[in-house]
Amino acid sequence: MSETLSERTIALVKATVPALEAHGLDIVHEMYARMFENPEIRDLFNQSHHGDTGSQPRALATAILAYGANIDNLGALAPAVERITQKHVGLQILPEHYPHVAEALLGAIKHVLGDAATDDILAAWGEAYWFLAHILIAREERIYHELETAYGGWSGWRSFTVDQVVPESSVITSFILRPTDGKPIIRHKAGQYLTFWLEIPGHPPVKRNYSISNAANGEYYRISVKREPHGLASGWLHDHATPGTVLKVAPPAGEFFLPVHPERPVVLLSGGVGLTPMVAMLETIAERHPGVPVHYIHGTHNRETHAMRDHVRSLAGRQSAIRVTDFHQTPLAGEAAGDDYDHPGIITEEWLLENTPVGAADYYLCGPRPFLRAAVAMLSLHGVPADRIHYEFFGPADELLAA
């Protein structure tokens, strides 16, 4: 593989950007339709993100457009490349899968653009695709090697047994998972997720990512799962993953995590089930960095939906450097301010600016898209550097990247 793209390829790819802006989503839908004709390739993906209302096609269309627009400045895409490689590692994407994607992408470009997709343009996009693919493959190979050779690490899918099932709220349940073979497990970075291969009767294999909600201990992982309306995977876990259930799990992955040695005050900001990686970070700070100032701020509907409240409060009670503030959007009739929650309503821009060290802290955010979109935009507009705003959410990052 060449270490650089040819000037001709760069020029041809950039010339197609207007066509991608106009037809990118059609190209992606056609691309996925072609890929999913192969069950082996189809089963690699989280199908809940696809379809007419799915977010993955729009995310990929945005990514392809960004790649084309920045083909002469690929350094700008480095964070996105890392996110993609981490997702690929979770899904166990391997080098032999890449030719299927190349064939589907080039075929889709030709199908949608017709005669405008000349042989020269298709050749340019082929070169550009494989240039990026080799970057991804090389990075993924390094990550796979690190995960397999680390103490407690593994490659591929490993069997874990549900040890405990713990109701956390009216909608969230935690599952304590221990390795079926009884051997040690890799110590994850607080904020990372596990990818599950679920075999649900009547459905193709289902892949889902769930954040690990406990600090690393080398013995077990905890995931805390919200039952989503019509959620195939979350519903199955809530209804069928009882103690003794065996699940197939890939090693921890994800580029959203607490650093080994936090250097600044930390603000953990979450909405709803977005608390899961935050609790892992809070436990980690309490156990290993007791001197680091941390402010945990969480928003949820009410007392019934508020998961892990007592656990979080107990951590704060043992560490003077930990502050906790809870917002309940619609408190129940029997709830008391100062006891069940701290503030009614939602977390506001004004409150964050007045009560968190905007000029000094690292912000870690996780929650629903509207929550994250508003928070990330607000922090950016008030001068928080991009390298101090860290976020994770559940699904493709199309809207957030645009923000």
Overall structural class, as computed from helix and strand content, comes to: alpha/beta
CATH superfamily of the largest domain: Globins
Which H/E pattern describes the elements? HHHHHHHEEEEEHEEHEHEEHEHEH
Widest β-sheet, arrangement of strands: 4-3-6-1-2-5
Our count of helices gives: 13
CATH fold description of the largest domain: Globin-like
Give the strand content.
Answer: 15-25%
Q: What is the correct CATH architecture of the largest domain?
A: Orthogonal Bundle
Query: Could you tell me the number of beta strands?
Result: 12
Low-confidence stretches: 396-403
Question: What is the end-to-end distance?
Answer: 34 Å
Radius of gyration: 22 Å
As for the number of domains, it is: 3
CATH class of the largest domain: Mainly Alpha
For the largest beta-sheet, the strand count, sense and barrel status come to: 6 strands, antiparallel
Average pLDDT = 91
Q: Helix fraction?
A: 40-55%
The shape, in one word, is globular
Layout: helices, strands, pairs:
Layout: H1 7-15, H2 17-35, H3 39-42, H4 56-69, H5 78-91, H6 98-113, H7 119-149, E1 158-167, E2 172-179, E3 193-198, E4 206-211, E5 221-226, H8 232-240, E6 246-249, E7 266-271, H9 275-288, E8 294-300, H10 309-318, E9 322-328, E10 343-344, H11 349-355, E11 362-366, H12 369-381, E12 389-392, H13 398-402
Which features does this protein show?
403 residues, alpha/beta, Globin-like, Elongation Factor Tu (Ef-tu), domain 3, Rossmann fold, 3 domains, 6-stranded antiparallel sheet, 6-stranded parallel sheet, 18% strand
